[in-house]
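Backbone-to-sequence.
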């Protein structure tokens, strides 16, 4: 048995300010979890980056597929997951489908992430 001294808990002011102003609502957490889950796959994260950085703001699935060592149906599946998460939208033009990033979705993610620590300007890795 340990003979450590237990210190009393003193009520008072918080030692630091909260990281966010208010907690997320239940609906917001479901929406954000879906977006983060979609971006949790390295292929999908890279796809999102390729579409976002493509000239003209939109990319044909035929152009994107060339950047991966994956089949075109697999690429289309990953794009579908990103679309269902609300990160991409698309339009069929003839035989090809063109994708573009939904700016409001990225702005929403950015605002959530930046509200956690507005002074953080570097990525911390373990």
């Amino acid at each position: 048995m340990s003979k450590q001294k237990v210190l009393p808990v003193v009520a008072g002011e918080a030692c630091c300010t909260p990281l966010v102003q208010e907690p997320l609502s239940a609906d917001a957490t479901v929406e954000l979890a879906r977006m983060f889950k979609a971006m949790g796959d390295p292929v999908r994260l890279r796809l999102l980056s390729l579409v976002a950085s493509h000239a003209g703001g939109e990319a044909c699935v035929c152009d994107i597929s060339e950047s991966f060592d994956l089949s075109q149906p697999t690429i289309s599946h990953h794009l579908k997951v990103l679309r269902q998460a609300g990160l991409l939208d698309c339009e069929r033009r003839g035989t090809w489908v063109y994708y573009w990033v939904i700016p409001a979705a990225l702005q929403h993610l950015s605002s959530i992430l930046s509200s956690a620590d507005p002074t953080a300007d570097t990525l911390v890795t373990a």
